[in-house]
Amino acid sequence: MPVKCPLPLSSDFDNAEAYVKSLLSFVTSSELFQNLCGGVHILDFLTKEPDLYSTVLPEEWRVWFQLHDIPAILDLLMREDDGLLESLKSSIDTLSAEKQGTNSTWRNGPCPPTSLLEYIQAIRRHALNRDFRPLDASAAPSSTGIGPLPRHVAVGMKPKKIHEVEKFVKYINGLTADMDTTDGHKITHIVDFGSGQNYLGRALASPPYNKQVIALESKQHNINEAKTMDITARLTEKEKIMCNKKRYRKGSQSTNHDPDASQPGIVQSSSSSQAPVNGNIHGSASQANPDESKGKIQYLESFIQNGDLATVVHEIKCAPNTPDGMIKPDPQLMVISLHSCGNLLHHGLRSLVLNPSVKVVAMVGCCYNLVTERLGPPTYKLPSLRSSNMRLDATSSTCDPHGFPMSERLAMYQHQLGQGIRLNITARMMAVQAPENWTATECESFFTRHFYRALLQRMLLDHGIVEKPTQEGDGDGGGPRGWTGAGPALTVGSLRKVCYSSFTAYVRGAITKLADDQERGIAIQRRMEGLIDEDISRYEDKFKEKKKELSVVWSLMAFSASVVESSIVVDRWLYLKEQAEVRECWVETVFDYKQSPRNLVVVGIKK
């Protein structure tokens, strides 16, 4: 199942090594990229001096952006053909003609500046290819002929989840089939890191896959919900309790002093054979289904803090004997995850190296903002959001060995700002955006929300509730740490939908929410009292022209962050590549980007 090229590259690169060299050079040398990916924050937009828009973007870009609306700008960034961008560059005759806007070569207006076109091409070139080709188009015979998920298995799933589960179970099934036939690794169990409500594991344990699944989940309520849905999926039967109604109504104790009768009137309790079993890292595991031809699920409640699966291996219940009486060997595990949050994917990849029983990993990540940092203290989009307590003050200067970057290649990379590649939380937060999927309605909605929040920050500054931001350098991280605020942290978060109907409604809703903070609520209300609707409206009128500028910067940030995601994924691939125990590793797409943007799986196979 390995692909020809271990990374889904653009056609500009002949091999993965050439791409990695170019990628690392770009992210550490492009000042514009570093500013857009971690160097600025939206709360600075109306409070920073000099003006953030004019500071970050070249003048020729700003002049050109004034001539086009946001949908057209988004089209240029993400939808115009690469060949057209190249022809636009060629059509610019002279630098003076470009600045004067005399070349009407794009949408009846001036041609975009050469530097903007070159930046767009650089981002596209260094972003991993996200095109998806369904497995059915080229799958092995063992993976074909499998239809969509039955309704009883897809219980609780929304269309996006159905798409993800359908595609990933086929991918896992094909990968295990290849392992069985070509590698000599007969995979006996599939371990799902962070199984949640176990949609993926339930599909794998159901026909026609019939896999033996170990579902690792840290939250007991998710496990309980998953077990309920297992009944609907026909993987286990609902527990039956037979009662003597007369005795139950009287509230008498069970006859014959039955020690097992914990409730009055219960005379018989019948539990299922439990194909999906119930287990617990610190408790008992359910009985395995004696029918080896059927899939089984064993739930283990565990908070995963590293890749050591020794306890999990101990808990696995294999059939005691093979048909010829021989004792079965140790389990052969495949570790998988569908959208592992933060460091969970790192733990999954490390499990391939730390555990002899783990033979293959296939992990799809998400929530890059939850990834910790290995090369220095945590970096924040708003450092002042850190709570003022001794424990956090102590840990804020520590490094997390489980964080980004995983690979030595990125950790030791030498560049003009020092050693190692770091990505702060602002950059990683933007990496979970999916700008290619934005609709016009969605754009208007969240651009308005961002503008309201930035404008509120200006109001808070003018009323002395927050202080002016200062720019803090990050001398050892390869990128600026972004906005640094003084004074108390004010987190508004999400408000009711009605609060976004106007800026006045937003301010009223935000002040009410901020006032709930007992420590600062009185001070906020005192300083904002007497603020009438006309005062709020004047703010919006004064800064309304800034909304488009904010929308342009946010669009550029989201577009550029595709390279941030690519850097994180490449780092994970490089980590596997560096391990002596790993024979093969690669990255490929497993979902349609339009339905599930976090669609890259990292695969590693042990020697």
UniProtKB/TrEMBL annotation:
Protein name as annotated: Methyltransferase domain-containing protein
UniProt cross-references to InterPro entries, sorted A to Z: Methyltranfer_dom, METTL25
Region (Disordered) residue spans: 246-292
Ranges where the Methyltransferase domain occurs: 160-373
Composition bias type Polar residues, residue spans: 275-290
Taxonomic lineage of the native organism: Eukaryota, Fungi, Dikarya, Ascomycota, Pezizomycotina
